[in-house]
Design goal:
About 50% of the residues lie in helices and about 15% in strands. A hairpin with a 6-residue loop joins strand 3 and strand 4. The protein has about 375 residues and is an alpha+beta fold. It has 13 helices and eight strands. The chain is elongated and about 75 Å long.
Length: about 375
């Protein structure tokens, strides 16, 4: 139980943080509940974009030769040209997605949202299934789910939105910790039991108060995780020094020793095989292609033991001229800080625990709304006294 003066100060701070950032927390919770199922919803709304010839037959794993054929097909087509990156499905039952460089929004400002061109390609037939602008807002079938993702990530504020989300994440951590101190009951079993339960026979005001108190306590670990990880995703340069004080973290290295190459270079198949040699049992999920400024293949893979059940967090950088491995990032073998940071997205999205984890996070997205409504009702009651 806190001294009354301390309790009053913390209560006011908790209140004003909620009034300032509460609507952002609610928005992030509700959009997060939906984008937990982003892949499934996107495919359901856009069967024409994501259907392939092998969906009606036995699908086979994507092979490096298929990736090279898709790359050559796009590069030779004047309507598309060489992409910046290829996102690779696990099997031929899904499309290869080619990404083209981001285009700056018209009237560029700190609040503008850049977008990239996405082109979907059948890996078996090399037929272009369609395209869309990733980052462009809209409510059409092809733009709805990406728009919800960008609303969750940028809150309609472009790159400035990432700062807003990072600050909101830090404030969520602070507000949750303040809430824990406000929750502390008197040191007896009766007070503890009352702080962890809701008496449905009580008055509506008492039910509202105890629901807010109980829910806030049980939700505390997840709120801390979501707030901290959200701040890290959007402004890692703010968080990494803090992590580095507690856990060893590998310093990020620039590809400065990768030369700008203008002559003959290794092809995508060779680069993928080199990366596969580093992680023999991993699936290649993304292939970043060499550019005029950096002749490097950036290859992302997922190892079977990784917590990240989607694209994985293993990375290999390969010099496009010599085939030399420039950098390897292994989330299973890195330093303690590296492994901790690699675990944040799988935990944030729930995918660390498979379908049950995603269901939990999807349902948990309603918690900020309930806390906001019950807290607002308590505030109104106090204000009207």
């Amino acid at each position: 139980m806190l001294p009354k003066s301390v309790h009053t100060v913390l209560l006011r701070l908790h209140l004003w943080l909620a009034l300032t950032f509460g609507s952002v927390f609610v928005l992030l919770g509700l959009t997060g509940s939906i984008i937990c199922w982003m892949h499934e919803l996107d495919h359901a709304l856009n069967p024409g974009l994501f259907s392939t010839a092998h969906q009606t037959r036995t699908a086979e794993p994507i092979k490096p030769e298929m990736v090279q054929a898709a790359l050559d097909s796009l590069t030779a087509n004047p309507a598309y040209g060489k992409p910046r990156q290829l996102m690779l499905p696990a099997t031929t039952a899904d499309v290869i997605t080619a990404w083209y460089p981001a285009r700056a929004a018209t009237g560029k400002s700190a609040f503008s949202q850049d977008w990239s061109r996405q082109v979907m390609l059948d890996p078996h037939t090399l037929e272009v299934k369609g395209e869309r602008n990733w980052g462009q807002y809209g409510i059409s079938g092809s733009l709805l789910i990406p728009s919800l993702y960008h609303l969750h990530r940028y809150v309609l504020l472009g790159e400035t939105g990432k700062i807003v989300i990072a600050v909101s994440g830090i404030m969520l951590v602070l507000m949750s910790l303040i809430g824990l101190f406000l929750w502390l009951p008197r040191p007896n079993w009766k007070a503890l039991r009352q702080s962890l339960t809701v008496n449905l026979a009580a008055t509506p005001a008492a039910i509202n108060f105890r629901l807010h108190r109980m829910l806030g306590f049980f939700a505390l670990p997840v709120l801390l995780l979501l707030g901290f990880s959200g701040a890290y995703f959007n402004q890692p340069q703010w968080i990494l020094p803090v992590i580095g004080k507690v856990l060893p973290v590998t310093e990020a290295r620039k590809q400065g020793d990768a030369h700008v190459f203008t002559g003959q270079h290794i092809n995508a198949v060779q680069a993928m095989l080199i990366a596969q040699g580093v992680f023999p049992h991993a699936r290649i999920s993304r292939l970043g292609l060499p550019s005029a400024s950096a002749a490097v293949y950036e290859i992302r893979l997922r190892q079977p033991q990784e917590m990240h059940s989607g694209d994985g967090a293993s990375r290999v950088s390969v010099d496009a001229g010599s085939g030399r491995i420039i950098r390897v990032s292994d989330p299973l073998q890195g330093q303690a800080g590296d492994r901790f940071l690699a675990s944040l997205f799988p935990l944030h999205s729930g995918i660390a625990f498979g379908i049950s984890g995603r269901i939990f996070i999807s349902c948990f997205g309603l918690v900020p709304l309930v806390l906001m409504l019950t807290g607002w009702r308590m505030w109104r009651k106090r204000k009207n006294k």
